[in-house]
Every structure is written in C-alpha cells, then in structure tokens.
TrEMBL record:
One of the Pfam families matching this protein, by short name: ABC_tran
Gene3D superfamilies: P-loop containing nucleotide triphosphate hydrolases
Record bears the keyword Transport: yes
InterPro entries tied to this protein: AAA+_ATPase, ABC_transporter-like_ATP-bd, ABC_transporter-like_CS, ABC_transporter_ATP-binding, P-loop_NTPase
Membrane topology annotation: Peripheral membrane protein
Entry annotated with the keyword Nucleotide-binding: yes
UniProtKB keywords: Antibiotic resistance, ATP-binding, Nucleotide-binding, Transport
Coiled-coil annotated residue ranges, if any: none
Protein name in UniProt: ABC transporter domain-containing protein
Domain ABC transporter: start-end pairs: 5-230
Amino acid sequence: MEPVITVQHLRKTFGATVAVQDVSLTVGRGEIVGVLGPNGAGKTTTVEIVAGLTPPDAGRVEILGHDPQRDPAAVRQLVGIQLQESRLPARIRVEEALRLYASFYPDPADVDELITLLGLEDKRRTAFDDLSGGQQQRLSIALALVGRPQVVVLDELTTGLDPRGRRETWALVERVRDSGVTVLLVTHFMDEAEHLCDRVVVIDSGRVVAEGTTAELTAADAEPSLRLRLPVGAPAGLEDLLRSLPEVSAVVGDDGALRIRGDRRVLPAVVAALDERGVVPAELSTLTRSLEDVFVDVTGSNLEEAAA
Ligand SMILES: Nc1ncnc2c1ncn2[C@@H]1O[C@H](COP(=O)(O)OP(=O)(O)OP(=O)(O)O)[C@@H](O)[C@H]1O
C-alpha cells in the first residue's frame, strides 16, 4: 500500500518532559489508523508534529513526500486537522465559519455539500455556542475537510458525545475514508478503535508498544482458551483427564466452571475427549482477547483510568 504518512523515530521534549521518545508509524492511502494510549503518552504531540504544528527535536515526517517543517505550505494544503476541543468564536455561525475557512484555500470543498454531508442543514445559521456537543464536533470535522485534504488528523473525536452522536461521527469518518481520504486519529476509546480503525498504534510513555490490526493485536501470542461447565453427575477425574491432553496447557477453576487454555486444537481435543466418555458439556464457550486486554498487557493501565 502506498504510504501517505511516514513517521520515523520522532522525539520531542518540553523542558525536562520527554513527550515523545521514539515513535515511528506509517499510514497507507485510504486507511484509518488510530493512535491509542493512556493520558500523557504523547499522542497529541505526535499528531501535532505530523500536521506540522510543532517541530520535532529529532526524527522525520513525510506526507506524500513533503516534510511539514521544510514545506509547510504544501502540507497545509494536504492535511486537514481537527484538534482536541477546538473552539471557535461563540457567535460565528455554521455556514459563516465554513465559508471563512474555505476562503483560506485555492480550491476548497463545496460548502453546501459539506453541510449536507455533515448533516448540519438545519443549523446553517446557528451560532457555534448554540450547537450541541455533537454538532460542534461535526462542524470541526467539516472545517478539517474544507480544504479538500488528502489526510485528516482527528484528535479525541468523540469525547463528550452521547452514544448516538458517537455512532454518527464514526459513520461520518467512514464516509470520509471511503471518499479516499487518509485518516489519522487519536482516541482513548477501545470500542472506537475496534469499530473504526483499520490499524492501531499503541503508544505508552512516548514509545510505540504495539501495532497492528485489531485482529492481529488480539491474536498475537494469545493462547486460545475455553470456558467449560461439566454437567451435574459427570464422572470424577475429568479435570485431570483434560489436563493430561497434549493440546491443553492449563486448566483452572472459574466460578464452578473450568477455564482451559491450550494450542489452536484445544477446542476439538476437549470436545472429543469428553465425547469419548459420553459427557456433553453443560456450557462451553471460547474466550477471545479484546483490544482492552491487549492494552492492559502492553501499557499496564486500563483505558477507563486512562480516559479519566
Ligand atoms: N506544550 C507543552 N509544554 C510542556 N509540556 C507539554 C506540552 N505539550 C505536551 N506536554 C507534555 O508532554 C507529555 C505528552 O503529552 P501529550 O498531550 O502528547 O499526550 P497525550 O497522549 O495526547 O495525552 P492526553 O490523552 O492526556 O491528551 C505530557 O506529559 C504533557 O504534559
């Protein structure tokens, strides 16, 4: 896939604080890549460097062959950015803000089309401060799109939105991606990353600690595991029997059931061993690792805390 964004070994300090220690990532055309990590991990600093708003101390950024520091004018044309809690003047109206931003670009998007795309038709003449949180968020995405960017950078896109607002915003970002725009987004939310991102880069303390598709991250190094409840009156010794199977690596009790880990043949092996003895499980399910589990493993914190 053609890389649109290439970031190599970024480093950025603010006085004694190392905000970004060593971050490398690439984003291909038409991908949605999520930057995920706990508070203070260096996510915002990273995307601000990518967008050319902050110079790095070391490392390289290229956006379609342009360095944001050496070629800021080209990068401004290529990248649209929606920053965390972007504020506009309280009384500026939706359409007015879009027309103002459009005037900064030689070949802006059609403002009326953007208003329709973002579902803001009824709000054209509404002042920024009178919009709901979701509408403000949609306007800030529209402003990021008004220069017809090839890349959009979205920071904490759905923070503060209700579930419906979040779903609508996700659908919107998917439409933007489907129109060929490459999306780099910062998020705290696992479900957002799972739902929306083609790939995820997990950052902790200024470093990339994991990277891949959600499926790759949740599959990596994870032993498949099962939860099994034996029927009432099952013959004694079944637990030891299961433990002795070559496909099984561990059996532990779990609230009256058993949690069984093993290789990728663990499920058929367990079912066959029980079947040979005429035992039908009262309950059997496979357990999969979630992105949240991966996040806890690699960063040692959980996202609820991270988002607090
Ligand atoms: N302009 C600045 N001056 C001083 N320190 C800064 C500045 N910007 C960021 N930092 C520090 O750099 C570190 C990384 O901040 P950054 O905002 O990139 O993290 P983040 O992962 O986006 O966090 P959050 O999820 O809380 O927004 C933090 O310790 C932060 O306090």
